[in-house]
Amino acid sequence: MRSLYPPIEPQKSYHHKVDDLHEIYFEESGNPTGIPVLFLHGGPGQGSGSNHRRYFDPVRYRIINFDQRGCNRSMPAGEVIDNTTQDLLNDIERIRQKLNIDKWLLFGGSWGATLALLYAQTHPERVNGMILRGTFLGRKRDQLWFTDDGVNRIFPDLWENFCSFIPANERHDLVAAYYSRLISADQEMVEQAARNYSDWSGAIVTYLLDIEGSITPDDLTEVINQVRIETHYGAHGYFIKENQILNEIKKIPDVPIKIIHGRRDLTCTIDASWALHKALPGSELTIVNKGGHLAGMPVMTDALIMATDEIVEHFS
Fold it and tell me: At the top level of CATH, which class does the domain 12-137+243-315 belong to?
């Protein structure tokens, strides 16, 4: 079974001012003359980390990681003003231009897969391949499954705690209800909303792992920032048209596309990757029977490393 490549440090890092408000962080590691690959993190709101460099052979890849607007090392942290999907796509293109890259591979999981697909539809001439994990298509049904009507039928006890925080007359749209509280001037309200939302989403994402997570005061600010951005995007329909990705599937370039999805993924259900694969006959779908949502699960890591090792052969 394949495991992550050894830890590496970035060779270059940048804090790039993209407008009057936002500054984004991105970095390069691996081989400066290797095949460029952009790692797109999930969330929305999470940020990239040191392990995200390790899905790629550092001898063969020029690895670019970045923190999306308001995330992690990008500033201002947790900012939702001028923070839309189109802004993120523009930032990706700015990074490509800044690094003087003609074409690159895209590697994205969950929301990162959404961004990869949207970027490929917007700039098809700049993409020479994609690896997508746990595809999220940003449809209303995909969001409702996670927050309103779907996985709640598997975790009714946890869902009761999640929705009971919101008054009954607002429960028709839980994401919007949580978002309104996360941008409130009432700091106690903000903190409790962030805790509740994070407890719910964290429990679903990690349900296959034998862990019990908790939010400590030290990381509460980070949790607030992450959840604020996630609900900001969710409350605005991810700033895309309904079913936009599948409706505009012909814009995707004819390049190698590998789709990996854990059959036990209850965050982003496998029907999204199935629909995408059927719409892209040239794509390759790998279903990981014992896999869930998290890329760090050994069976998922194995499938992803296999994909990065195989797809680079197209460019050798």
Answer: alpha beta
